[in-house]
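Our preliminary data section would be incomplete without showing what the modeling component actually yields. Below, a chain of 115 amino acids is followed by its predicted structure, encoded as tokens that our downstream tools consume directly.
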Amino acid sequence: MTEPSPLDKAEAAVTEASVNTAAVQVAMAAVELAKLVSAQQQAAPPACGHQAPQQAQFNTRKWLTISGLAIVGGCVACFLAMAFAVAAVAVAICATCATACLIVLRSMWRDLTNR
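Predicted structure:
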């Protein structure tokens, strides 16, 4: 057998009272108010006012698309980096050749003008 709750005990004590005085009426009103409050608390929604988000299903197509785009983006970035490196080497080679040509031409100019 289950033990009665404190509200049930209070209600039984109030009904057993033989004198219907103001104190008994106040006690009965308090018991009824406590019953109403407990019923409202049990039926009330969560205090935060929002529902918990539902668990979303795993979308394989979405993740394959994202990973595919990441791979393509990585390949494009790698290709651009290699193209930039080749262009930088080409500029360095051109600069070295131009410097060598200028040194040779200056030397030839000095030889021709000194005579």
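The chain has two domains: 1-45, 80-115. The chain has a mean pLDDT of 82. Preliminary results of this kind motivate Aim 1 of the renewal.
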